[in-house]
Amino acid sequence: MPTPQATVADTPAKPLLPYATLLAFTRYVDRSGPAKAAFVGKLRKQRETGRGFNPHSRLIKALKTDIDQHTPGTHLVEVNDVVDPRWQRLYASLTAGAASYLTSIEGQGCRLTQTNDALAMIGDLPVRISAHFGLRYDDGRSEAVRLHFDEEPPTADLITATLHLLRSNMDQILPHAEPVLVDVRRGIAYRGEAGKGADVDRWLTGEAAGFAAMWNAPQH
Fold first, then answer.
1. Are 158 and 201 in contact (CB under 8 A)?
2. Would you state the pLDDT for residue 8?
3. How much is the pLDDT for 13?
4. Which of 44, 32, 85, 64 is nearest to 212 (CA)?
5. CA 159 – CA 166 distance, rounded (Å)
6. What pLDDT does residue 140 have?
7. Which domain of life is it from (predicted)?
8. Number of other residues whose CB lies within 10 A of the CB of residue 172
9. 111 backbone dihedrals φ, ψ, rounded to 5°
10. Which one, out of 9, 135, 168, 202, has a CA that is 20 to 30 A from the CA of 157?
11. For residues 157 and 30, is the Cβ–Cβ distance under 8 A?
12. Is there a contact between 113 and 106 (Cβ–Cβ < 8 Å)?
């Protein structure tokens, strides 16, 4: 009698290992109670289906072009006219704050510089840490800039987690740079002080363990 052959349907699917981006992990950290589990479940489904879209990409490009060309928000204004109509309201809510941030760094002799992504292990959870762009100033300073687009301003926990994770991986992202989180809607830049790193590490390691446990929980 011939040996039965395994079919694709018989082959167990490989487990989807926990993984997060900096954006996803800091948004998770900023939630509490059942909202954490719901958020992780949504992330897992997005990864399973391969869905995902960044509506902010054209605004980021416009902001970077204005920085690079030392133009006072010219490209930020123009992008509102060319973006897909369904995103025009979103862009209208972002460009004024982005222009305000642009004004705050103009005249300081800054120029764009490349950053690299870093893969950090927070406990057993791999997290991809990235900045949106880097800046170098004529006085020798450099910054790795992360943009916050959400309607609500960043909370203290989100700011602390973002700046700490960027700083902890700066050797890979942009050596000797300082991390900056920019609240784009309000044009506010947050530059945190170093310190209490061990306390933040313990907090984030616990959060990462919770993230992984929720990710690996049976799906219903």
1. no
2. 47
3. 56
4. 44
5. 11
6. 93
7. Bacteria
8. 14
9. -140, 155
10. 135
11. yes
12. no
Provide the angle, in degrees to the nearest 10, between the axes of the packed helices 57-69 and 74-82: 150
3-state DSSP helix/strand/coil % of the chain, to nearest 5? 45, 15, 35
Count Cβ neighbours within 10 Å for each residue of 119-139 and write b for 16 or more, e otherwise.
ebebbebebbbbbbbbbbeee
| Residue 117 backbone phi and psi in degrees, to 5 | -80, 155
**What are the beta bridge partners of residue 188?**
183
Predicted pLDDT of residue 5: 55
Supply the pLDDT for residue 138: 93
Provide the pLDDT for residue 2: 53
CA distances (Å), origin 58, targets 61, 62, 173: 5, 6, 22
According to DSSP, the β-strands at 125-129 and 118-122 are antiparallel
Q: Is 144 helix (H, G, I), strand (E, B) or coil?
A: strand
Looking up tokens 């349907």 gives 9
Residue recorded with tokens 């791999």: 126
Q: Pairing relation of β-strands 188-190 and 125-129? A: unpaired
Reference 143, options 94, 103, 109, 186; nearest CA is: 109
Q: What is the pLDDT of residue 16?
A: 83
Residue 115 CB coordination number (10 Å): 23
Low-confidence ranges of the chain (pLDDT < 70): 1-15, 52, 193-195, 219-220
Beta bridge partners of 182: 147, 189
∠ Cα 40 129 66 (to 5°): 115
What are the counts of helices (DSSP H) followed by strands (DSSP E) for the chain? Answer: 8, 8
